[in-house]
Amino acid sequence: MDIVMVRLCGVLEVTRGDEPVVVVGRKARLLLARLAAADGAVLAAADLVEALWADTLPARPANDVATLVSRLRAALGPAAVLGGRDGYRLGPDVRTDIADAVSLSREGTRQLRAGRAALAAAAARRGVELLGDGRALVGSPEAGWVLDLRGEVTALLRTLRHLLAEAATAADDPAVAITAGRAAVMVDPLDECAHRLLMAAHDAAGEQDRALAVYERLRSALAEELGVDPDEHTRALHVAILHGRTPAPARRTVAAAPPRAPAGRDAELAVLATAWEAAVVGDARTVLVTGEAGIGKTTLAEAAAAFAVGTGGLVLRARCYAAERSLFLRPVLDALGPALLSRPAPQARRLAGPAAGVLAGMLSDAAGVLGEPEPPLGSPEMARSRALDAVRDAVHGLAATAPVLLLLDDLHNAGVATVELLHHLARRSAGTRLLALATVRTEEGAAALDALAEVTDRVEVGPLGPDAVALLAARAGAARRGEDVLRRTRGHTLFVVECLRALAAGEHGVPESLQAAILARLRRAGSDIERMLRAGAVLGTAVSPDLVAAMLELPAPTVVHLCEEAAAARLLVAVGAEYEFANDLLHEALYATTPTPTRLAHHHRAADLLADRPEALAGHAEALGDRPRAARAWLAAGEDALARFASADARALLDRAVAAVPADDPVLTGRIHLARSRACESLADFEPALHDVRAGVDHFRAAGERRLEMTALRRYLSDLAPVVPAQELEQQLATGVRIAHEFDDKAAQADLLGGQAILAANRLRFAEAIELGRRAVAAGRAGRNEEALAGGLDGLKTAYAYLGETERLAPVLAELEPLLRRQGRLHLLHWAVFESALPAVAAADWDTAIARIDDALAINRRSGPRAPEVWIVAHRGWVERLRGRYAEAVELGRQATRLARAAPHDWWLPTAHALLASTLLELGEVAEATVLLREAETAARRGGTEAYLLRSLAPLAQATGSPEVLEAADALLGRIRAPAGSAWLAGGDTYLTVARAWRQRGEPRRARVVLAPLLTAARRTGWIPWLTAGELEDAAALAELGEHVEAKRLRHRAGELARRHGMPHLAERAAAAVSGARRHSSSASRAAARAAPPGSTGA
Hints:
It is built from 53 helices and 14 strands. It is mainly α. The protein has a 5-stranded parallel beta sheet with strand order 8-9-10-7-11, sandwiched between helices. It has a 4-stranded mixed beta sheet with strand order 3-2-1-6. β2 (13-16) and β3 (19-20) form a beta hairpin.
């Protein structure tokens, strides 16, 4: 196909060949822009949906994306967009102006480094032309990806202008250099590099006075804005111009050529050098070096690190260990800590950015430099997100001082959190001088490779070729044996090296296997070193001299000396405070060939010595076949990981605990299931979490451990509650309360009674809910436990909120909200803030109500679990409907139903669907409302909770006119148990829609019976929206019963309330009803007069 060019700078434009292409439709153009901005990367359908419909999703977004893709293929060619519903990317024949500019920048840099200044200037000039004024996607929405793209373009344009000014000066074209330098200085008046280039250009043009004026403007700007002087390079240039000495052209920090590559790895190192060159100019990259064990990945990565150091870079190094997966982000923190904490405290805090306190809580001994650690807030998901952002900000801060190479060795051993961080850096480091480089074993790193595939480049390291082996053989003095070595090793790097070492040491013949070569070298090292290394091999790839000394019962200095000799023999390498095996295969060969009794004895001793490191202990216990000890250790490691917010790693560790635990230990089994339920819940995997809670309860119950059973039952109060069938939840909470009373555990009583109160409210048993809530609060106060008190207040708050008892609700919220803020329990706080909107709704104070609901939504979006967002958005639409803003109500209602369908939930989906359906019914959209309500009814019946079933059936009765549905809804209303004079005001729609359904069936008396409790409660509590709407419905029923005078009175009063409190739709309805009643009355009077006998008054 013809080359398709997509211009992202300025207004989006597309050409195919030399012809312009019109892409029809705003969404299609936005989709093309999003794919083009990804620069060939695959974008998941979910990412595209987010870009296309930031606020309001269509009913079937994936289908709509597929339709838009088809439209692009029709316009640009079938190969323009590749992929399917799992993800899409632009084809190789689609180019963008930004990608071309990046290529020109790289080529210009290489040409300038090679001394070809004119070619470099030409490349840079073309790049500047492509980017124009640097404004990308003019007129597009201010979405995050658009802002990221604009940031990348700004940084790229700056780089190209610098390059053009430098190259043009070197090419004796100062006019072009001056133009480029001025443009760069105009954009950033504090850019010293741009000022130096402009000074040099003016000097080359013989305009020394202008060069000095440029310096003076820079000096003044720096002094005024930052309180500093120009740096030493700028000052030196200034002095040189003053003295008439033509300075040498400014030199870029990139070296002329990469360092000497390991034998046979020139091509691979060239790729890494190119990635580094890109990173140095702010084009952040993430590269994975992959290959089998012993193939030379680490050697290649270290060569790249040497290249980075040689070009002014900062290298952050760490190795990933399998025994440290439970330690959240440990490898990255190991790499980051020394570079950050070695700096003065003010500088370190500035580099760490606003999240310095979060980072201080993750790095040991960091408080003195970074300040006091911030406690984790909100859900585990939120804490994990804040931690990832804190590490990213710190890496970016360091990259602002020097280009950074983050090198992680053996990523296949890393926990999930470390892989997540790499993904995070890859996606959110645009414009940062960062190269993230990791080595991964192909055979063991499939999960990491899959997770990072879309955001990384790969450099595959394969066997050495004949020339490389011959070169290594010649270096080892065994040139004549090169072919033998190649034939035996097939180019496997480590095997080649070990064979050549053996030959150089005087061995006869090429070893039969890599293991044989390693063991031969081990024998040459001596029996003491071999004994020490075999003990160390049991510990893993890292060898701690102190630990090995304790295992062998040798003096520590003796073992340190043996380690030093092993390092001299290249069997170990010193890394920080420990040693590591020179390579993994050396470690594996040692472990595999250690006699079993010796190996088990070492494991036993290591297990005893590592009691404070549960993940390491677990591995030794498993090797010994000690399943109970292994299970306990895996449990402890999983709980440690949970405490560090590494939920996915915790789940994996606890899976191993479940596999290890003996069948005859129900208590330990129950503890493991309970811990795993927390990990699953924090990952929003609720069904497995509930399964684990049930298993924990069953095991504790079978063991007769009542207190542990109570602890497990309290897990039903978590975010799992809405996925538990109502009957089961009720029974389990009741059991928990009984056990709490047995132990006189006030905190547990408060917690469980509060949960019972919430459940009772959702089952429409409000009098019971209030009593339970009061008991919960009393227990919390008696137990002097603020968390338990908050749980009790939450239960009582829910009962009052459902009843709309605003005067009683207010003091509960006044005590509860500060408690929750102090405790950082955002997952409860967003409910308290939401329900604080109800008094404003009752008073028809619409702006206050909406502000509080928006506050609740903001807290929810910060707190992690997003499921309750459905409820909050749905009620935001409900308030808009109550005030008569139907367009906004429908828009928000549709947003809530989309959210509900995306994550189906047997409480939230019926709520969202029913609230939108009630709005649609008021607009006469009966068919759509009916579809929503059928879906809501199905979910509500599955959940088995009465409040959500009534929410669904009440409007369905109005929509369908079904007598069966109406009788069922009316029966549920009749089963509401509330204190005298109260009603379910939070569900006031249900009374109104059932009353309308009775009127539709010609039974206005039954409609009035339904409305009576709503009106009584609304008048007593001052709920203006329900009083107004309820009296209008009651008036309609009275009119149908012939009581026109009372109906007229109610309509006048409702109309006045509606006009006074900003409900124009109800005011219009009242006015229309009054007008209709007058017409009906006049017609009736005239008819009566005509029918009356002569002389009659018609009375």
